[in-house]
Amino acid sequence: MKLHKKISRGSKKMNSTIAMMIFMSFLMWFIVAFILFPNLEVLKSVFISNGGLSLDVIRKIIHSERAMRGIGNSFLLAVSLTITTSIIGILEILFLEYFEIKGRRFLNLCYMIPLIFGGIMLANGYLFTYGSMGYVTKFLLQLMPNLPRNWFSGYGAVLFLMSFACTTNYMIFFRNSFKSLDYQTIEAAKGLGASDWMVLTKVVLPTLKPILMTCMILLFQTGLMAMSAPLMVGGPKFETIGPLILTFTQRPASRSLAAVLSLFLGSFQLLLLYIIQRNEKKGNYLSVSKVKTHIKRVAIASRSFKIIAYVLAYAFALINLIPLLIVVLFSFTNYQTIITRELSLSSFTLSNYASIFWDKTAYNPFVSSVLYSALAAIIAVSLMTVTARIIFKHRNRWTDMLELMLHIPWVLPSLMFALGLVLTYSLPRGIMFNYVLTGSLVIMLMAYIVVMLPNTYRFLKASYFAVDANLEDAAKILGANPVYTFLKIVFPIILPTVLAMLAINFNGKLGDYDLSVFLYNPIAKPVGVVIRANSNPENGVQGLAMNFVYSVILMMINALVFFFVYADGKEKIKNIFVGRKKLKGNA
């Protein structure tokens, strides 16, 4: 009997070892094929020419006036965006969490809009609101007839749009850190006679310097790699690196130039990563008081400063709100109203939404995006759930190397990775069994999965630290095999993180444009690419109407994901029903 049990346990252990080896072999093939090879191909296209080392492509970029102007514009946008968005983001947090300002709920909702209304959707909304035929532009022309119709274009328009669109890091990370400050330090400063301005500049902001520096570095990175805003509202006068890479990629003869520009972005991404890591190792992140007093909002003593604060607070809110309201309102109007920009009760209709359900050409892009995003999210989370488990349980130099390779997509820009896929698999490759993937239905799915891997792995690995090792040991003693132990004990504990990552990954790629535009197949266009195409005037009013409907539906999905993932929606809904049951019971 004992011998039989030993044989059974040995057999189970061997089966689990074989299964792990098969999985690891598949994972290594996937990493080599879709992470290492594409990025190496970019390097090869830049430095290897006619079988030898060459710097000719780099010389072409240096002598290209258009390319150098694009690089200069990207740096200009990155520097200025870091300044403007930091000012706006910090002020928004102060209006919500530090100063006593009426209407906080309204302000909070408006400041959260970029979390659900961003990317290509937001650029399209701003274009319809402030563009040459925009709703606001039409109103301004009545007041100022000499105003140029294309006033909202170029560097100023891109900076304005992105300054408000990129406050999300401040609304999430900086805000959480601000709320964790110890108010006792602020009270102590005030007790010593410090003014509100001195408290802010000498006490509050210096304490938050590490998270502030991280937000600013990420902003610089965002500005450097901007794609949607420069493409939609920048115009020919303000080209940046992202749109230039797209333009060069679409011309096979110019792909080597695109490779140089993407390599430039990758090099700068590595430098920014190094700066962030150095920044994380320095300083004290928050107050170290053992008994913290939560932040208390302060009344603004100065009347003039109070007026300025209220004007800025509500101006920021309206700037976020107006494009969203216009997109939502015009999604319910007929074509004539969209053309004239004149709203009336008789112009409202549900025909635009009906076409999403009945017109195949209208709903196909949305279905494609949902399928691609859902499949990519499921595959990425499944892969990383197992991978994080293996690395967590087996720490050695091989798993350390695997962990390092999984972070490559986080280190290098998605533009460089997308270009690498195009260059690598436009020809038959042995590692891909001689299939040409460029232009296929599979390549965009693979790209979505790869860019999801780093963050998914980081969060899932962290969730395994919450699992009590004693529970696993007890199951092992009782004879449970590793798979059964994982499914019955470990997986229920990490399930909230798994579901959260599924939702976040799905949400993040649902309206994607930057990566999709390089890799999509014409028969399965994602909605982000269609929104960009429909924004061109030559596509007519029907395209604009569809853009509004797509944007509203995407916003609704984003809002639901945000509600359940970030705002603890499941518990709130549960509490509502529990409260109703209690009321009925009391009655």
Can you put this structure into words, describing what you see?
- This protein has 587 residues and is mainly α.
- The chain has 29 helices and two strands.
- A two-stranded antiparallel sheet has the order 1-2.
- A hairpin with a 2-residue loop joins strand 1 and strand 2.
- Helix 6 packs across helix 28 (540-565).
- It is globular and about 75 Å long.
- The N and C termini lie far apart (63 Å).
Number of domains: 2
Shape: globular
Strand content: under 5%
Q: What ranges have pLDDT less than 50 throughout 5 or more consecutive residues?
A: 283-291
Assign the CATH topology of the largest domain: MetI-like fold
Span between termini = 63 Å
CATH homolog superfamily of the largest domain: MetI-like
What is the number of helical segments per DSSP (H or I, 4+ residues)?
29
Biggest sheet record: 2 strands, antiparallel
Number of strands: 2
Secondary structure: helix percent: over 70%
- Determine Rg (CA atoms, Å): 27 Å
Which CATH class of the largest domain applies here?
Mainly Alpha
Query: pLDDT average, as an integer?
Result: 81
Secondary-structure-derived class: mainly alpha
CATH architecture heading of the largest domain: Orthogonal Bundle
Strand order of the largest sheet: 1-2
Reconstruct the topology from this structure.
Elements: H1 2-47, E1 48-49, E2 52-53, H2 56-62, H3 65-97, H4 104-111, H5 113-116, H6 119-130, H7 135-143, H8 155-165, H9 168-179, H10 183-191, H11 196-207, H12 209-224, H13 228-234, H14 241-249, H15 255-281, H16 303-330, H17 335-340, H18 351-358, H19 360-393, H20 397-406, H21 408-411, H22 414-424, H23 443-464, H24 469-477, H25 482-510, H26 516-519, H27 527-534, H28 540-565, H29 569-586
Antiparallel strand pairs: 1-2
Helix pairs in contact: 1-15, 1-22, 2-15, 3-8, 3-9, 3-12, 4-16, 6-13, 6-16, 6-28, 8-13, 10-11, 12-15, 14-15, 15-22, 18-19, 19-23, 19-25, 23-25, 24-25, 25-28, 27-28
